[in-house]
């Protein structure tokens, strides 16, 4: 089993009581920004070479898929956080 070590910044967030969904939401946003930058760079390279290299197209598609997947999970964590908040409000 591969266990991910938590970055000290994330450990501090846990220490200060930040919810898991908020931490995940923030980390996903950072990953999305990185994936978006990589996607845009791959797209730029592909366009500069007149779409002539299949490997460049694969690189662009990879980052496009990464960004799509991260965006989906980001949106899910957002909805999840609101649902949990609504449940807490309903319980009083």
Topology, please?
Blueprint: H1 8-15, H2 20-48, H3 54-91
Helix pairs in contact: 2-3
Mean pLDDT: 91
Distance between termini? 40 Å
As a whole number of angstroms, the C-alpha radius of gyration is 18 Å
The total beta strand count reads 0
Task: Report the sheet with the most strands, covering strand number, pairing sense and barrel closure.
Answer: none
Describe the structure.
The protein is mainly alpha-helical. The protein has 3 helices and no strands. The chain has helices at 8-15, 20-48, 54-91. Helix 2 (20-48) runs antiparallel to helix 3. The termini are far apart. The mean pLDDT is 91.
Question: In short, what is this structure?
Answer:
With 92 residues, the chain is mostly helical. It has helices at 8-15, 20-48, 54-91.
Task: Throw out a few tags for this protein.
about 90 residues, 3 helices, elongated, mainly alpha
């Amino acid at each position: 089993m591969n266990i991910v070590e938590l970055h000290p910044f994330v450990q501090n967030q846990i220490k200060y009581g930040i919810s898991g969904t908020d931490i995940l939401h923030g980390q996903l946003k950072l990953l999305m920004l990185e994936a978006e930058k990589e996607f845009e760079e791959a797209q730029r390279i592909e366009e500069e070479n007149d779409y002539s290299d299949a490997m460049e197209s694969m690189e662009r598609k990879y980052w496009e898929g990464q960004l799509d997947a991260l965006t989906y999970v980001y949106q899910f964590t957002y909805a999840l956080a609101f649902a949990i908040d609504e449940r807490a409000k309903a319980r009083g």
